[in-house]
Amino acid sequence: MMKSDIHYDVIVLGAGPAGLTAGIYLSRARIRTLIINEGTVGGQMVLTHEIANYPGVETTSGYQLSGIMKKQARSFGCDIVGNASLRELMLEGPVKMVRLSDGREYSASAIILAPGGRPRQLGVPGEETFRGKGISYCATCDGDFFTGKEIIVVGGGNSALEEAVSLTKYASRVTIVHQFDHFQAFEYAIEEARNNPSIRFILSSTIAAFHGNEKLQSVDIKNLLTGELHNMPIDGVFVFIGYVPNTEFLRGKLNLNEYGEILVNANMETGINGVFAAGDAVAKRFRQITTAVGDGTVAALAAAQYVYTFRQQKQAEAVKIN
Amino acid sequence: MLYTNLNHIESAAEHQKVISENENVMICCGRMGPMCIPVYEIMEELEPQYPHVKFYDMEFDNPDARVIREAPECRGFMGLPFTVYYKNGKIVKATSSIQTMDQVKSILNQEFGVPVTA
Ligand SMILES: Cc1cc2nc3c(=O)[nH]c(=O)nc-3n(C[C@H](O)[C@H](O)[C@H](O)COP(=O)(O)OP(=O)(O)OC[C@H]3O[C@@H](n4cnc5c(N)ncnc54)[C@H](O)[C@@H]3O)c2cc1C
To answer: Ligand 1: which atom is nearest the Cα of residue A279?
Structure first.
């Protein structure tokens, strides 16, 4: 068994809106809380240029909103370790343990898992080589590099169709490549894309490989119905094919569904005593900042209850011994 | 203006001074955008751990940032931020788009040496 450097009441893994909210609620209830985050504090919120649907806050940037949540959590005494790299995690038993790659170890009575998700990649040859050299996952960041150029947008959901429309501000032509013969986006987004004269569609197809020298020059497109491959010269490709939960590190440790999402009950409890989960990594239908914040609140309140009960039991045991 | 806690480079002359007066320099040239902010945060975190490296940012839309935008090592780059690593005034490595902590550390260790911890 690991022996930790520092003991907390609750450790939260992940500092997106779910984890930060849990940190705010727990610390405010004077529960000793540590948030450990791999990557940038704020999570996917930081990837969002403009947030217009967070109640009570007029249009803001994800960077600003996450900065405020972080400040709020810290103001109540929550400790936050950012850009950490997790090496080992022990969820079973009354004392949970976390070990980081740099050797630091922490223990807690309860854990809240809030690792969120990340953009899905195509996973085809050339994707890593040409990332930032023609392949992008952010239209607002990189759109202007493609002014007057021909680009592809991969995907068929709301993000793909909305971003394809916004990219026509820069690109001379946008081709949407989508694996199905229909789109999963809302009707308004499909209409807008279909009515845009700069957008054309290649359906039932996928990108099989990226080619180029210093930068991306062409892609192989595979027709999924016929299996036929054709090469298409192109300046840029934007990929919007959904998100995958960051739960690889939990495989074999607790109940995940077939998509790798964490299974919880209405109190955000997993199947393991003292282990809760919240946010985009949880099995649910809608993934938004508001839903992550709601999950984080419920998980924090349930974890607080668990910690109080745990403390009372320990006190009762101590009294018995004396 | 970049709202980071890094030191900022605001002109071509300042850029020249920084790279000529320091052996190891990392400069992240970007905007306050989703792909850039994580790199600035990583640099802020690494700054105290790498005292032998100077960390700076430079605003991509500053006309003088052409010293980075138009560097031959950044040819073909089409993703923000452009991150450049200088040793004795020469670019030894350049990357385009978001990078992870491990990717940045591995370049720093390889180009400038692993920090000596007391
Ligand atoms: C481009 C974009 C635009 C969006 N726009 C909006 C919008 O306008 N409005 C809205 O409501 N929602 C929007 N969303 C969705 C919203 O950002 C997410 O639903 C929300 O951020 C999920 O919060 P979370 O805390 O569950 O996870 P995340 O925000 O994903 O945060 C999880 C954090 O945990 C970290 N982590 C991962 N693994 C581990 C680990 N093992 N240990 C520790 N930490 C770990 C991650 O690095 C990350 O920092 C958008 C998403 C994207 C990508």
So the answer is: 26
ipTM: 0.77
Q: B79 φ, ψ to 5°?
A: -150, 130
Searching chain A, which residue's CA lies closest to the CA of residue B77?
A: A133
The CATH fold assigned to A6-118+243-321 is: FAD/NAD(P)-binding domain (3.50.50)
Q: Where are the domains of chain A?
A: 6-118+243-321, 121-239
Which H or E element spans position A238?
Answer: strand A236-239
Q: Which two tokens mark A169?
A: 């501000």
pLDDT of residue B15: 98
Is A121-239 the same fold as A6-118+243-321?
yes
Q: What does the pLDDT read at residue A1?
A: 46
Q: Measuring from each residue's beta carbon to the nearest atom of ligand 1, which residues come in under 6 Å? A: A 13-19, 36-40, 43-45, 47-48, 51, 53, 86, 114-117, 246, 249, 279-280, 287-290, 292
Whether residues A134 and B78 touch (CB distance < 8 A) is answered with: yes
pLDDT in tens, B91-117: 999 999 999 888 999 999 999 999 886
For residue B76, pLDDT over 80 is answered with yes
Give the model's pLDDT for residue B118: 46
CATH class of the B7-111 domain in this structure: alpha beta
For chain A, residues with pLDDT lower than 50 are 1-2
pLDDT digits 0-9 by tens, B23-74? 999 999 999 888 898 899 899 989 999 999 999 999 999 999 999 999 999 9
Residues of chain B in contact with residue A138, where contact means CB-CB under 8 angstroms, are 33-35
Span from the CA of A247 to the centroid of ligand 1 (angstroms): 13
Domain residue limits, chain B: 7-111
Could you tell me the strand order of the sheet in which B54-59 lies? B7-9, B54-59, B24-30, B82-87, B90-96
Instruction: Work out the average pLDDT over B2-25.
Output: 95
Q: Which residues contact residue A117 at a Cβ distance below 8 angstroms, ignoring those fewer than 6 apart? A: A44, A243, A244, A245, A246, A280, A281, A287
Sign of CA dihedral B81, B38, A293, A158: positive
- Taking contacts as CB-CB distances below 8 angstroms, the residues of chain A near B101 are 39, 83, 85
CATH number assigned to the domain covering A121-239: 3.50.50.60
Sign of the torsion formed by the C-alpha atoms of A17, A19, A22 and A27: negative
Instruction: Pull the structure tokens for residue A237.
Output: 């490709």
